[in-house]
Amino acid sequence: DSGVTQTPKHLITATGQRVTLRCSPRSGDLSVYWYQQSLDQGLQFLIQYYNGEERAKGNILERFSAQQFPDLHSELNLSSLELGDSALYFCASSVDRPGGSGELFFGEGSRLTVL
Amino acid sequence: AQSVTQLGSHVSVSEGALVLLRCNYSSSVPPYLFWYVQYPNQGLQLLLKYTSAATLVKGINGFEAEFKKSETSFHLTKPSAHMSDAAEYFCAVTSNTGNQFYFGTGTSLTVIP
């Protein structure tokens, strides 16, 4: 158990719909990262938040957005869903401060299927 | 920005044989290097990490990796493969600030009985 919790584990929805994926980081971790994993694209970095603020942005579509709340949990919002958005979405957290161990701890992922 | 190259998207070894998974990073020395493993339908788990304390890093499940600055490599090895080692393996590096992570495209390891 990494200590990172993601919900829901599985989600099936239709094209054009909107979904929200939730992530609770490990206790004490200030950084949250979102990744998308699909068969053809591999593991793609989407976005990172640190203590409530966006820190880095990767290959995140404009239809996608994220935020990190004061209690440090994060949500990834996916809208106007397309078939190609079907993927496994991972959240990871890290300590990300001086003296921290530096590694990412991954949740078990949310598998999104768009029909 | 840092980058990571994993040579060989698929590697097959016989049970009991040496496992060698290759990883090369871009030229500037990153603060941290990692190997992660992903079993089917699971998240990524840390196998080992390099933090400049020692060039040979030992991880879980008998895996180890050696940091070679001259070759910009961080290859993962295990002397004797076990069936349970079948999984996807990812090499990753951090940015110079240590707060951004760059993953390789992964290597799928198959262990043949």
Can you give a write-up of this model?
The complex is a heterodimer of chains A (115) and B (113). With 115 residues, chain A is mainly β. Chain A has strands spanning 5-7, 10-13, 19-24, 31-38, 42-50, 53-57, 64-68, 74-78, 87-94, 105-106, 110-114. Chain A is built from no helices and eleven strands. Chain A starts with a strand and ends with a strand. The model of chain A has no long low-confidence stretch (mean pLDDT 92). Chain B is built from no helices and twelve strands. The interface between A and B is medium-sized, with 24 and 22 residues.
Question: What is the secondary structure topology, with strand pairs?
Answer:
The complex is a heterodimer of chains A (115) and B (113).
Chain A: E1 5-7, E2 10-13, E3 19-24, E4 31-38, E5 42-50, E6 53-57, E7 64-68, E8 74-78, E9 87-94, E10 105-106, E11 110-114
Parallel strand pairs in A: 2-11
Antiparallel strand pairs in A: 1-3, 3-8, 4-5, 4-9, 5-6, 7-8, 9-10, 9-11
Chain B: E1 4-5, E2 10-14, E3 19-21, E4 24-25, E5 33-38, E6 44-50, E7 56-58, E8 64-68, E9 73-78, E10 87-94, E11 101-103, E12 107-112
Parallel strand pairs in B: 2-12
Antiparallel strand pairs in B: 1-4, 3-9, 5-6, 5-10, 7-8, 8-9, 10-11, 10-12
Short description:
The complex is a heterodimer of chains A (115) and B (113). Chain A is mainly β and 115 residues long. In chain A, 0% of the residues lie in helices and 52% in strands.
Q: List low-pLDDT spans of chain A.
A: none
Total number of β-strand segments of chain A?
11
Structural classification of chain B? mainly beta
User: Any idea what the radius of gyration of chain B is?
Assistant: 13 Å
- Indicate the mean pLDDT of chain B: 91
Form type of chain B: globular
Alpha carbon gap, first and last residue of chain A:
31 Å
What is the global morphology of chain A?
Answer: globular
Quaternary assembly: heterodimer
Largest interface: A-B, 24 and 22 residues
**N-end to C-end Cα span of chain B:** 41 Å
Strand content of chain B: over 45%
Give unreliable regions of chain B as ranges.
none
Protein structure class of chain A: mainly beta
Biggest pleated-sheet summary of chain B: 6 strands, mixed
- Kindly state the percentage of residues in helix of chain B: under 10%
Share in β-strands of chain A: over 45%
Main β sheet profile of chain A? 7 strands, mixed
Range of helix content of chain A: under 10%
Question: What's the helix count of chain A?
Answer: 0
Q: Write the H/E string of chain A, N to C.
A: EEEEEEEEEEE
